[in-house]
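Hello again, I could really use a second opinion on something today. My current little project is about how a certain protein chain folds up. You're getting the sequence in one-letter code plus the fold written as tokens. Here's the protein in full, and shout if anything looks odd to you:
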Amino acid sequence: MDIFDRQKRSEIMSRIRGKNTKPELRVRSCLHTAGLRYVLHDKRLPGRPDIVFPSRRIAIFVHGCFWHGHEGCKKAKLPETRSDFWQAKIESNRERDTRNREMLEALGWQVRTVWQCSISDDSLFQLVDETVSTPRHG
């Protein structure tokens, strides 16, 4: 692989969003419309959850099925080229997700994961109901 290929790949990867993705914006919009207020990407918490309700101690991650290796999901299919690279990358992401979840739970947080493929009106209404029904802390 020559330097041009590496530079081109680097440019492409740099354009991939880690924040404010379409699935994340849809979840946030629904929560906001329901009157819920939250903190975004709280750097004080492990993994910087996408959406945080500090008073309820709820952390929500909105995961893209491909990037986080959603098992059994058609959107999580690995590319045929450079499959070893992608397998390692996705596995690393999954391990990091597990570590972050465990650390948050150890700190007393409820962790919810919303998968890109499962975002629907019904799932969002359920998320709102679960959030509203969680008691506030001190």
